[in-house]
Amino acid sequence: MISKEIRFDCRQLGDGGALVIVPRVDGTPFTELIDRFEITAGMQPAGDAYGGLIPQFFRFGPMRDHFLGRSTNAMGPKTPVLGCECGEWGCWPLMARITVTADLVIWTSFEQPHSPARDYTAFGPFPFDRHQYDDALRALDAAIGSDET
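Request: output the structure for the sequence above.
Response:
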């Protein structure tokens, strides 16, 4: 399984607004990857439906734990990796199963819980090298820390 590179982009909504986190896979924002998939698959609505996660709007717990599939709030076996473009993750989330091993972190089994008939089996899996993933999480922690001071 060839691993992909992940980064977590952090930006603020507007001027000094809440922090938004968008995963970036092999240099492409995950919002673009899911948009392309849904549009190609003929899903409606599709395109510009997703946005990043906004920790200030929901208590995900430490983002490191969240992106390792161990969010402090019980959300079932899957983890929101994107939220709605409106900023509220529960409005239109993209959920994934996050599996962690000694060598890999793998995102699989994507779903849109508000449209359970959608078929995401051809989207992914997204395997990431565990060390690179951990480095990306450390960079995310540093970015969040610097933005909160």
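The beta strands are 6-12, 19-25, 28-29, 50-51, 79-84, 94-100, 104-111, 126-129.
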